[in-house]
Amino acid sequence: MPKMKTNKAAARRFKITGTGKILRRQAGKRHLNEWKSANDKRKLSGWAALTKDQLKNVKALFPYPQYIG
Q1: φ/ψ of residue 64, rounded to 5
Q2: What is the pLDDT of residues 18-44, one digit of tens each?
Q3: N or C: which end of the chain has fewer CB within 10 A?
Q4: What is the pTM of this model?
């Protein structure tokens, strides 16, 4: 049986930690930054954990459970 393929779009968008959590980038920093304060833009940088609702859909995109935890 051939290997299952990871969804490459998901692999680029999400990061899986060593403990199995799935992280996503913060939304809201792509455009219209001219009107946002530096404080707001700084808060939007970095990674955030997925909610339980999102987790179910994203787990389906990673076929091998050892990468998810």
Answers
A1: -100, 120
A2: 888 899 999 999 999 999 999 999 999
A3: N
A4: 0.76
b/e burial code for range 11-29 (CB count within 10 A of at least 16 → b): eeebebeeeeebeeeeeee
What percent of the chain has a predicted confidence (pLDDT) above 70? 93
Distance, in Å, from the CA atom of 51 to the CA atom of 49, rounded to the nearest integer, reads 7
- CATH (one of 3.30.230.10, 4.10.410.60, 3.20.20.70, 3.40.50.2020) for 8-64: 4.10.410.60
Residue with tokens 């799935």: 22
Question: DSSP 3-state assignment of 65?
Answer: helix
Cβ atoms of 61 and 49 within 8 Å: the answer is no
